[in-house]
Structures
1.
Amino acid sequence: MLRTITHPRIATVAVLAAAVLAVGSAPVRAQGVSAGSVTATELEPIPNPSIAYNRMAIAMGLPQKHGLDLKLGPDLAGGGPERIQAVVTNNTDIATSDIIAAMGSIHSGAKVKILMVMTPYGDEEVWGQDKYKEIKDAQGQTWGVASLAGAQRFNAQMTVQGLGFAPDAFRWVAIGGGDGPELQALSSGRVQLGSLSHLGAIQAEAKGLTKTIHVVVPHTAKHTPPVPRIVVVARSEWLKDHQPTAIAYVEMVLDMMRQWENDSQAWVKPATAIFTKSGMDEKPFEQGWQAFRDGGYFSVNGGVNLAATQKVMDLFFKLRKDSPNQTLSKPADIYDTGPLKAALDKMGVVKGTPNLPDTPDWYQSSAGHKG
């Protein structure tokens, strides 16, 4: 997708309007009815609208709409594994993590489950120093990823394999904190290559960093199989004791995703309100929304697809040179689909959404459910 930003400027942040357009089919809990309190931890501490789901939901007024007392959990460095650790150690109820970190923890015996898939695809941009015109020129060089045990490294390894290189043809370096620290590491020369979200790439252009770094691989998804990526994880014991809260949280996220899919301003306005130090105004955020929507980023049906999960599980074991065990051998081992089923029973399954191949296959095949 071609992007041109000729005169980036720092925006004057408008105050987010109290009312945001809602999807007509989304549930609204009766006033005064509480679904409980939940602490949720983001995937990165710096507010980034592409993965700052809880901050975006709060800016849109969605916790109150769904009867949730939503509290932000601890800000953590690193990638998905740190979020899983926060869940396992009871420092947060729910965490946005990645499917590789979740699989790794379950394979190791952690009693956690995935509630839904927030991003049913893995698509990023690979950026590098200007001296590397093509990815082959940078073999053996350092490549920054969010963590060494999470999905970003996994996605990068799948990408280089798809391009004809061995998964260890580059030196992987953990750069925790998302696009901001990754850009800093790239621009300072700490790493020679780095994985960025589409929004991070727009931010690089907006900040004028393209004088020294440039995009090397525009869309990693063109070189990898379609696999689920970002997920919501909770402890099995917490889920057992907090089903109404878990269902309400899933409803809130589905409500948010459906608004984002249908209305760019539902994404742009809260993003502008919370992402105040990005150096971007609404136009780049609009471009980011379009890139994410075109790629199928918004998981309007919860993104649980067992066939796609089996693909990523097969690759998980192959790249780790590991084998299934008693805690991780099939896709069903990583999911607790009860809250998502309950939410979709209430909200309905969205059909006819091109770019969004995430209608749950278990839902379609369940007795009495035809979507």
2.
Amino acid sequence: MKTLIVGIGALGGLIAARLRAAGLPVWLPTRDAEQADWLRASGLRVTGMGSAVNVQATAIAPLDAYAAHDGFELVVLATKAHDAIEAAPKLSVLLGPNATLLPIQNGGVPQMLADRVGDCVLGGLSNLGATMETPGVYEQRNDGHLLIGELGAGESERTEQVQRCLGRAVKVCTTNNFRGAVWSKLLVNCSVTTIGAIAGCTMREFINAANGKEIFNRTYDEALSIALACGAWPERMLVDPIPPGWCGRSVASEAHDAWIGQLLKGYGDVKPSMLQDIQRGRPTEIDFINGYVVSVARRLGVPAPLNAMIVETVHSITAGKNVPNPALLGPALQAGIGNSGFGP
């Protein structure tokens, strides 16, 4: 498939490099000519898990240089959520007949894009842990995969076609329950990625810090309750989305500790992407992650105080009022518990 990868950050760069190494036709748009020149000179390199890759960055130009006559069969949208919404109208013009726009973002982004550009959108999520060391240099941090599926559920020929194409570069799985998969990823993002961003460290580090395990459990429990309340049934990804013995809240047990251990195996040493954004002074996706959970809860008329407090804490960090630190977890936890009306 003639493929355009939009967003050459950690995830997009990793996919682009591995596609190029597999000999597949892939084009890479950049923000401007300067970035294109830089990547053309440096090439694309992948280290970490999986095979090492070092390829030239050919077929690379500013996004504005591409036009309707390019007729891409597949556009992989690997930008941040806010950039994806902004770029969608331009990208839909670049699609050839019966082509596919595959966003790989968190929360409700795929459905929001479908509402804007139509049925060309195929749902996508990523379980790949990646870090961009410098532009063009990426480290794969886990043995994860892409998950794709139709927004309206069910199987389709295009899902299989995209899987065959991208599967030559990275592991790609399909699902008939994409809505459930969205919530499965949200559960991890709300409790692993965001808490790590607030604490300024990996999950393995914050889970052993004061208040770390409790804020993780309570945030996860709250998001899971809202997922079930809205009629979604989260899918298994790296772990079963329903923790062992779960009864509306997590129950301490050896089985639950083993469940957390599975999460740590997959995500424990991955530097949270939101933390990377904060450190680079970039906008975060907090409003599309915990903020999305809060918006769904509000629609259902149910409380989501801890997720709301986490959103507030991240906004305070990006506004310069706080810096990521494990010491922020205690106040966020206590404020969330206090606003819920329930005690410890």
3.
Amino acid sequence: MRSARSGAAEPMSDQSELRVYGETDVGWCAATPPNETTDEDGRPLIRSDGFTAADPRAPRRRAYDDPDVCALRERLRRRNGLPGLEIVGPDEVERARRIFFRDGFVVVRDLLDPDALETLRAASARVLQQILDIPGFGGRKYVTETARLPHRYSYGTASASRQLLHEPEWAGMIDLATTTPLLTSLFGGDDYWVIGAGGDLCLPGAIEYQTLHSDNRETFELPPERLAHAQRMGIELRKGDGGEETLDDRTRQLIYERTPPRITINFLMSDLTFENGPIRQIPGTQARPGSPPTQADEPEWMRLSTLVGAPAGAGVFRDPRAWHGGTPNLSREIRAMPNVEYAAPWHDAAAFKVSMPHAVWEGLGDHARKIAGRIKTAPGEWPAGAGVMHPLANRRSEAKGSPSDVPGRPQPTR
């Protein structure tokens, strides 16, 4: 049993039984009402706006064989998936680059070999188990994460440190032979940074669509460092009619599109199918000034613009400014997508928070140590909150203030 301070109880089940691929008994809690989220302390509420806005078209009951669920599943069976989804190999660097800058994302297969995939699956299941160990209330099987829809969790925000770079499996993904050449091409060099790692998942029975959103918004600012990045990307800085210091509109737009402040790689633990909650991405929205449509206004084609067909072991390189969102998991399989998040060389240094223990950093290769230099601790220190997972924001805050009882935490050197 873990510390009472973390809010945990006896494990829900043997950890060896929990898998983030293939059929599972986890999920499908009919006692959890549709569209219910929680506040910082776990009190249930329904929200009509923002990130956790209610899905007005959600089934009326969270049960696998509910008629509304069956009807939605059949509709997704016939129509779900982005037509013509391009999936490239890790050696197709130029093709991946073209697709990424065109669409704001690209699916790259075979990023993880079978051993690496199995290692990350086991780690993803182990960390998820910590979340599901926490008992629900009022007949609910699970505690809904603060400000999220039911059966959806973030590996990052559920961590009291907001990151998982204290976990060797997540740290080990930051510099792979299959990903580093692609990142170097997308950033125009190898001087980018790791800024965080986490990812998201949805359990079977996540019947709601998540509102379309951007993880980061374009600021439309062009500091000198970003202009230098643009030139490394081969963009000619053409002047407009407003004088020597003014760029023409076409050049400015090209810079916005091809110098993303961040790039995220989500690694797929299972094949994305029509029914297991595949992420939806709206192509070409990464540098748009407007906001995504609301749940009520989103057209059907956007709800169906999902990455069905992307295989396990692949990764989705995403510009987090692009519109995206979660979709219903009507299957019996957990859909997990652990991630690593990278920042451009000109990204604001104040945005980097310490989250990787020095001991973990020391075990990495040369390039990995270089790009993780802004988020590692000093020798002997441990990131506040690292190792505690909890769905509720206030319990995470408590744990972050008192991390000394975290299991497996190295003792500071004296």
